Amino acid sequence: MAIACGRLGVSGLRPELVRLVEELLRDRPAGEAIDLDTIGDAIGARAVAQDEIDAMMSEIERRGHRVVSAEGGRGELHLKSVLDAARVLRNELGRPPRAEEIASRSGLSLAEVQHALSLVRIMQR
């Protein structure tokens, strides 16, 4: 269970991200799925770490919605490039690469990389 501390809300998210989740879920019927493209579009160019995206998805699910990847979603287009770049960087750096490093190596935007990494998280659930 997440506990409020400092600038983080009860869900463990920054207040700005809690508001973003609330906006995403506003006027959605209980149980309705929300696709990853919609979450990615809402995040836009905000500086959001992968663990924060995971926490957002967990909060969305905690509130009774499913997070899904739309068939043919954008993340699938970039998934191979992101995973290939991440593997090479991990070997070179000796640690998991940051999303910014993957973006630089793959030639994709940070938002595209974050979206693809979120898709991987959904696939692993």
Produce a short descriptive summary:
The chain has 125 residues and is mainly α. The chain is built from 6 helices and 2 strands; from the N terminus they run H-E-H-H-E-H-H-H. It has 2 domains: 15-68, no CATH class; 74-124, Arc Repressor Mutant, subunit A, CATH 1.10.10.
Low-confidence stretches: 1-8
Task: Please state the overall shape, judged from the principal axes of the Cα atoms.
Answer: elongated
Helix and strand run: HEHHEHHH
Oligomer: single chain
User: How many structural domains can be distinguished in the coordinates?
Assistant: 2
Mean of the pLDDT scores? 80
Based on CA atoms alone, the radius of gyration comes out at 15 Å
Contiguous helical run count: 6
Proportion in β-strands: under 5%
Strand element count: 2
- Strand arrangement within the widest β-sheet reads 1-2
Structural class, by secondary structure, is mainly alpha
Helix content: 55-70%
Span between N and C termini?
Answer: 19 Å
The major β-sheet equals: 2 strands, parallel
Name the descriptors.
single chain, 125 residues, mainly alpha, Arc Repressor Mutant, subunit A, two-stranded parallel sheet, 2 strands, elongated, disordered N terminus
Can you describe what's shown?
This protein has helices at residues 15-25, 36-43, 50-62, 74-93, 99-106, 110-124, and strands at 34-35, 67-68. It is mainly alpha-helical. It has two domains: 15-68, no CATH class; 74-124, Orthogonal Bundle (Arc Repressor Mutant, subunit A), CATH 1.10.10. Helix 4 (74-93) packs across helix 5 and helix 5 (99-106) packs across helix 6. The relative contact order is 0.16. The model is unreliable at 1-8 (pLDDT under 50).
